[in-house]
Design brief:
5-stranded antiparallel beta sheet; 7 helices; SH3 type barrels; 240 residues; two-stranded antiparallel sheet; 7 strands
Length: 240
């Protein structure tokens, strides 16, 4: 049995064991490996994001927290490198750091042969990109979007004017290689586009966003869509 197959089977066995769990010895016997190998596999599963719990002492063992629902995934070398390339080429994309961390967890549990081929292929891909936005600014914008809270920003316009704005984040949008925060601007009392690299400072406030919707922004161009798009909007969609 290949390692990735063993990891998947190991994860499923732990899930089926429920709150009882399984001892390392029982897992080793089940898969015909040493207890040491089982413990390395458990570490690999935990690093990939599977919430492994351990209960010491007589009657103890290992198990998976019930909140978990996704087993380890299997990728081809090309799929693994495609994920790495996509994230590396878009450091300004929302939640890019989280995506990179997630991909690293997935790659950590690839079988050695697949991992070696992925490493070889990755060496054949070079990526260069513009200077990303300030990390602390991106973190604040990401938090404000995820929690739907008003974000206070210091923004420099195209003409060089600096203003402080309270913004209710509605969407992140990428156009012509640039990322924008689009939201309801309290200063202008209207929906506005903010180029993220022009946001010099951002602070998440305690104020919750109102009821502004994506539909207020307009219809994406034919070449654009939501990451989860089911239907088109109705109004023109253009940056401010």
């Amino acid at each position: 049995m290949k390692r990735i197959e063993r990891l998947q089977a190991l994860s499923e066995m732990l899930r089926r064991s429920g709150s009882r769990g399984c001892t390392a010895e029982r897992l080793a016997d089940e898969f015909g490996v040493s207890v040491r190998t089982v413990k390395r596999d458990l570490d690999a599963l935990e690093n990939s994001g599977v919430p492994i719990w351990a209960r010491p002492g007589p009657g103890g063992g290992y198990g998976v927290a019930t909140r978990s629902s996704l087993p380890p995934v299997s990728l081809s070398p090309a799929q693994a490198v495609a994920l790495l390339a996509a994230v590396s080429a878009a450091p300004d994309a929302p939640y890019a750091d989280l995506a990179a961390a997630g991909i690293r967890r997935i790659i950590d549990v690839l079988d050695p042969g697949t991992r070696a081929k992925a490493d070889q292929l990755a060496r054949r891909i070079w990526v260069t990109s513009d200077e990303p936005a300030i990390r602390v600014v991106k973190s604040a914008l990401e938090e404000a979007m995820a929690e739907q809270r008003v974000v206070r920003i210091r923004y420099t316009s195209r003409s060089g004017e600096k203003t402080f704005r309270d913004v209710e984040p509605v969407i992140f949008a990428s156009t012509n290689g640039r990322w924008y925060l689009i939201g309801w601007c309290h200063l202008r009392d209207a929906m506005r586009w903010f180029l993220i690299t022009r946001i010099e400072h951002a602070t998440v406030t305690k104020s919750q966003c109102g009821d502004h919707t994506v539909e207020e922004i307009g219809t994406p161009p034919e070449t654009a869509r939501s990451l989860y798009a089911e239907e088109q909007l109705e109004r023109p969609f253009r940056p401010y």
